[in-house]
Design a protein that fits this description.
Blueprint: H1 2-8, H2 16-27, H3 39-54, H4 61-69
Helix pairs in contact: 2-3
Length: about 70
């Protein structure tokens, strides 16, 4: 998580440390642990990104299921 956030939200432009902490708290994921490419983990990440970008996490299960099936 930390590496992803640093890559796409660099400290030169954002409060990266705060973003890492809030994202980790929201998703329950360790920011330094390797990520498994599994449906539950990716769904947490997607919901966390939506929450960060939009101020709330609105992700309908059927929308996520459709996207997952079409990867």
């Amino acid at each position: 998580i930390r590496q992803i956030i640093i890559r796409w939200s660099p400290p030169s432009e954002n409060k990266t440390k705060s973003l890492v902490q809030s994202f980790s708290e929201y998703t329950g994921l360790n920011p330094d642990a390797p990520l498994a490419f599994s449906k539950p983990i990716i769904q947490k990440i997607v919901a966390g990104i939506i929450s960060q970008e939009n101020g709330k996490a609105y992700l309908r299960q059927e929308d996520f299921d459709w996207a997952w099936q079409n990867l």
